[in-house]
Specification:
- About 35% of the residues lie in helices and about 15% in strands.
- By secondary structure, it is α+β, with helices and mostly antiparallel strands.
- The protein starts with a helix and ends with a strand.
């Protein structure tokens, strides 16, 4: 019970003059003052006060500390022996974890994400904010979320998921950033000088791949192909690269493998094995279809383009501090 209830019961005991049958014993528990904020990152603790998911689970041994205990002499019936000595061994606090999460950014993206999911009647939504210069995750959210203070009110599917790191999806046009970066790096296109004519579709191995714009964009530079998100133009870009080059860049950008983020449950995504890549697979991969990535993979890959070519390992644990001295023991 909460402390105010304890004081109320003590007051009743004094007024009504009863002393047996009610014992007060202090215990510890982990609580979440921000309720649903960052719940899918933090996870929750179960009825035994042990971490079940998220940070709570991954770093439970650091957070838990050592339980206290009361020691007394008892007879065979487990009753305490009168006038025997009792001792109490105090609990020792665990360590404090300092995360990279910015509570203000986290609050903003959770609010806006919930609004967008409700407005567009989506099943769920995901947002990640990462500092591309160092890999720090400033915010990470998926909606719907849960309140870890009352985890028993939610189904296990909601509690156990961290969609930003394990859900896979077809990236579509957001993948064109990767294809463009590879094409420019390999020098197979000059974005401003090379031109491409978009008639509205291109046929590859008998399959017609259409541009989103009916009738196509006509003559474009490859910079305009990028600006217009023109699928046939990206098919051409993919063929200029060739499957070996394009798929080697997918590997360099970290697709098909875990990013190594310090959270449990990360997925690898799915990339075509090179030996299975024919013309059609090459064409669709170039504009982001037929491949499967995780949100954290996509954010990490795009961050490497933003920061000048460094593929960083994303992370949420900034440091571990001794709860007594506040000295950093790991950073």
């Amino acid at each position: 019970v909460e402390q105010n209830k304890v004081e109320q019961i003590k007051e009743w005991k004094n007024k009504l003059d009863f002393s047996t049958g009610i014992i007060f014993e202090e215990t510890t528990s982990r609580t979440y003052p921000y309720n649903t904020l960052a719940s899918t990152i933090l996870g929750f603790t179960n009825s035994d006060n042990s971490g079940a998911y998220g940070i709570e689970y991954s770093w439970n041994s650091f957070l838990s500390g050592t339980a206290g205990k009361s020691v007394s002499l008892k007879d065979a019936s487990q009753s305490e022996i009168a006038n025997s000595e009792k001792s109490y061994i105090a609990a020792e606090n665990g360590y404090d974890l300092n995360l990279t999460i910015d509570v203000n950014i986290q609050g903003i993206i959770e609010r806006e994400l919930a609004t967008a999911v409700d407005e567009y009647e989506c099943d769920s939504g995901i947002t990640i904010a990462m500092d591309p210069s160092n890999g720090k995750i400033l915010a990470m959210a998926d909606y719907p979320n849960f309140d870890p203070n009352n985890y028993q009110d939610y189904d296990m599917e909601t509690l156990s998921r961290n969609l930003p790191i394990w859900m896979t999806y077809e990236p579509g046009s957001t993948f064109k950033i990767i294809t463009t970066a590879a094409a420019v790096e390999e020098g197979v296109v000059n974005l401003e000088k090379d031109t491409f004519y978009d008639s509205g579709s291109v046929t590859v191995s008998g399959a017609k791949i259409r541009c989103w714009k009916s009738g196509g964009h006509g003559s474009q530079t490859f910079l305009q192909v990028f600006e217009n998100s023109c699928n046939p133009g990206f098919v051409e870009m993919g063929f200029r690269l060739g499957k070996e080059k394009l798929f080697s860049y997918l590997d360099l950008f970290g697709f098909g493998d875990k990013t190594g983020i310090d959270l449990s449950g990360e997925s690898t995504g799915i990339i075509f094995p090179l030996e299975d890549v024919k013309d059609l697979e090459l064409a669709t991969t170039a504009f982001g279809q037929g491949v499967s990535v995780t949100p954290i993979q996509q954010v990490t890959a795009v961050s490497s383009i933003v920061n000048g070519g460094y593929l960083l390992k994303p992370y949420v644990l900034n440091s571990i501090l001794d709860s007594k001295t506040n000295n950093i023991i790991l950073s």
